[in-house]
């Protein structure tokens, strides 16, 4: 759907630190430009001097090393086309409501990331026996609301995920240097996992022989199914199977006739194989047409369904996706008190006149 006389805007959720949604309802290209890529920050942007930028690779390794940007650029590179989704995407839809940035549907974007496989750097340093995780620290730091001390944004990956060929230390996005607000000069990219794993402004990489227990690993980005206790808690990792209805939008008023219902579907682990649509609040379902367009793996796919609105009234439209491992969007999300991983059947209400 072209918009020749207007440009969409990011939707502001917060400015200090900056958190902005992508206008996914109004951008057609499969590759999200840097201009419209969502922004998720925990602290203010860091101060960096790229011409003195080196990163250490240390910890449980045989050959601790420092690597410069130039040395990194000279290593073999790969490009991975991947969707990044904030773990809090759709948080505003939880019932009962949860605290945190009230993201709607736009805390997600996708594009082409180019860089060096993390495993190449780890192999250069030599992983010692007994290693279990790789800890990546970002240059962004500040005070959390639960502590008076400053901390850096730091996350760890299991060694198996860190060694996956698609896990990158990236330096380019859509064939241009990664924009500063998205992690320049180096950003970790962990396809298939929620965006919290893709640490921006990499400061150092450390191989660890024990699990990392920093606050962004063990306090945040954890599913807490109980409101008042930590019982049953488990970590946020791969993106859930999900879908979003983009057109029509919620509370649209439509004329009678044929309308095309359009949207996106995605999963962190498997390819989407089916999207079902209901125009009567789940009483009956029909299968949408998938537009794979040669894309699979870490991309969302677009889908569409022609609906003949033959009579006036109010209608509830639902979308439900299924991936290749037979994971299906649930009718209700896993409620958790930090509001992560919302993936209930998507819903919009429209009126036909």
TrEMBL record:
Q: Does the keyword GTP-binding apply?
A: no
The GO annotation for biological process reads: sulfur compound metabolic process
What would be one Pfam family of this protein?
Mo-co_dimer
Keyword tags: Metal-binding, Molybdenum, Oxidoreductase
In this chain the Oxidoreductase molybdopterin-binding domain maps to: 52-215
List residues traversing the bilayer. Answer: none
Q: Where is the Moybdenum cofactor oxidoreductase dimerisation domain?
A: 236-352
Q: Which InterPro entries match?
A: Ig_E-set, MoCF_OxRdtse_dimer, Mopterin_OxRdtase_euk, OxRdtase_Mopterin-bd_dom, OxRdtase_Mopterin-bd_sf
Q: Which GO terms describe its molecular function?
A: heme binding; molybdenum ion binding; molybdopterin cofactor binding; sulfite oxidase activity
Listed name of the protein:
Sulfite oxidase
Q: Which organism is it from?
A: Alteribacter keqinensis
